[in-house]
Amino acid sequence: MIDVYTLKRLALWGRLRSPWILHFNSGSCNACDIELLAAITPRFDVERFGIKVVPSPRHADILVVTGPVTRQAAPRLKRIYEQMPNPKYVMALGTCACSGGIFRGSYAVMGGVDKVIPVDIYVPGCPPRPEAIIDGIVKLLKKMEAETYGK
Amino acid sequence: MEGSLTSIINLIFGPQHPALHEPELFRFKVEGEIVVKAEPRIGYVHRGIEKLFEKNTYIKGIYLSERICGICNVAHTVCYCQVVENVMNIEPPPRAKYLRAVVHELNRIHSHLLLLGVAAEELGFDTLFMLIWRDRELVMDLIELITGNRVMSAFNTIGGVRRDVNAETIEKVLKVLPKLEERVKYYRKVFEEDPTIRKRTVDVGILPRRDAIRYCVVGPMARGSAVDVDIRRDIPYAAYDEIPFNVIVRDECDVWARLMVRVDEVLESINIVRYALEHLPSGQIRLPLKRSAPPGEAISRVEAPRGELLYHLVSKGGITPYRLKVRTPTLANLLAASKLFEGHTIADIPAILVSIDPCFACTDRVTLVDVKSGKSTKVSLRELARRGRE
Fold first, then answer.
1. CATH superfamily assigned to domain B49-327
2. How far is residue B260 CA from its own chain's centroid?
């Protein structure tokens, strides 16, 4: 018989070694998006760490949001976040997603992902290099581990 | 809500470059497997940039225009700087013009390779996607070498460019170009001969020349439909009046022709970069900075990777623009593109979307409406691409 504790450890082990990412563009200029895509291609290849970009929020562990969150995209972002299974983590990718960046003060943007959903890790940069994105994910994994074992 | 009212008025500006994985919605009316009508729903990426231009100074505007589209950011800064220079009545030095052309073409190479890779992915050819993106890193390195950053280059400024190149840099760039050329020639062969690619793209999404003119499509989409337009040749800007290059035009009018135009343009761009670096004039790279512009009005047109880009600036004097209007190529192409889907199967949708330009993945969600029952179902584009492969 496997007890609940062992199952939980097993789930965590799986999650930490193969976190699945959902990418959502909330009105970004595509610079962050192409850098995220570059991170999965051969030069950087995050798939060797088990990190995989998935198309559906229901499969994802980490939601990577780019862009300053436009008013049109905000309800959609919220809905995608709600569709993700627990435990879920959010990464704000790029300066726009962290604070609104250059678009701060525009009538059409909310100014940062954390205005709409809770954010676990911020990766600033315009756009962040693929190395920075990988570093952000690794830091997030450490946080995930500490959170679970800390309890 | 007042905010949404204003966004309707300004909607045209909104998702000017609906590219990779952007939130955008297409409404396809289908009868069985056949698409009867396609309606794009744009506006998710509306950030109110035109209004922000009016609030910010001309200098800040450079960085704002760069962030309209991260993929073809150099085209935007070239166009913005030119329009401001036109109002201020200044002419950048020749060396700056050549350097602008160099970075502009490197940017075009990266943008076209990006699209060709994603096109391969949407056609179900993932290996080719990975290979093209691996070689695209060569261009990203060159852009970083010249401008100091991989994507957002912040290279152009009003009255010139911000960084100079030395002999060492030129040598390094010229060393990488043959390597890149060889790879692109190989991909040209793949796109030309691979039976899978040909089957998915030849005679799909046909836009006849007459329709291309009637719908005012621009860029590679027009050139793939035998319309011979290229702003670089027709109204030369930067150093294009001194650089010899060919305009690639094909008359097959289908998805395949549009992809081939882009492959060939990459090869042309490599030659332009090589010529410009070999014939780089000496001298200063920028004029002393002017902060304010006299009252006046000007336009500037640039051939961005996706087609013609137009900026219209109205100045009433002072340090901020009175009004700046931006017309981006994707909007022009998107409206015509909705016509292309009609009569094709659902499986062809990703291929056609890719060919108009990276508008494809922005359609992260696609709504299918069954004409007979009126029922609508939502599927993601990836799901659609998967269906197309099976």
1. Cytochrome-c3 Hydrogenase, chain B (1.10.645.10)
2. 16
